[in-house]
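Q: What would this chain look like folded?
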Amino acid sequence: MVEAGLAKVIYDNRKNLQISKIPKLEETMALVVLILNIIFPGIGTIVAAILTDSDEKRKWNLIFGVLQILLSFLLIGWLWSILWGVIIYYRNTGAMKNMPDALLS
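A: My prediction, written as structure tokens:
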């Protein structure tokens, strides 16, 4: 139920949240990325960038990961990193798992 609600919110706000930049990963790797982003801000995002097949998503997630690391001392980067990890996890599990990228861009 939560996944469906999150999928609707993300679908409705996809332009504002840059949802098209979310990398598509295996379910277990999405969980690893989430845990890394909680413990080491930005590192999970960089790992996700390395694991994705899309050059566009790789570029943006590398940028996001570096910014999350640089801003983590202000707590903004850490919160962003956790949120991005949760979004990556939900994108690759549950209701959004089978949603085509075309609907997210």
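The mean pLDDT is 84.
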